[in-house]
Design goal:
mainly alpha; Four Helix Bundle (Hemerythrin (Met), subunit A); globular
């Protein structure tokens, strides 16, 4: 598979994930909405990294959650300035929300889920614009 194919595949997954988050929000499954928002941004960030020629460093070429955020922020926001610094906040906020949804006893509320969805749309759309993908 070429990088161009992988970029398209990851963008498709991110867009599909956003559609799933909208469904989860509409059905009041706020914890799952938060989880899927994070993963939509994760997949979009991988597409952005691949589009910039940055490859995964872990064995098997898989992107690790602790690695992709540092690479996206360090390389694509701070160093190359391909993306606005506001996207750094989106990755961090969605990660914290997902961890709460998945691992804590606290439940995600409707407003938190709605805001995560709005942030995720902003993130995925920025990656689509920059990578030239209109999946």
């Amino acid at each position: 598979m070429t990088d161009r194919q992988a970029i398209g595949d990851y963008l498709k997954k991110a867009i599909e994930g956003l559609a799933g988050t909208e469904s989860e929000l509409a059905n009041r499954r706020f914890n799952n909405c938060a989880n899927r928002c994070y993963h939509a941004c994760f997949q979009a960030a991988i597409a952005a990294l691949l589009a910039a020629g940055i490859q995964a460093r872990s064995p098997g070429g898989r992107w690790r959650h602790e690695h992709f955020q540092a690479q996206f922020t360090g390389q694509l926001i701070n160093r190359r300035r391909r993306y606005p610094s506001t996207l750094r906040r989106i990755l961090g906020e969605n990660m914290v929300l997902r961890q709460t949804a998945d691992y804590d006893t606290d439940a995600i509320g409707e407003i938190q889920a709605y805001r995560a969805l709005r942030r995720s749309h902003e993130f995925v759309e920025a990656v689509q614009r920059e990578s030239g993908g209109s999946q």
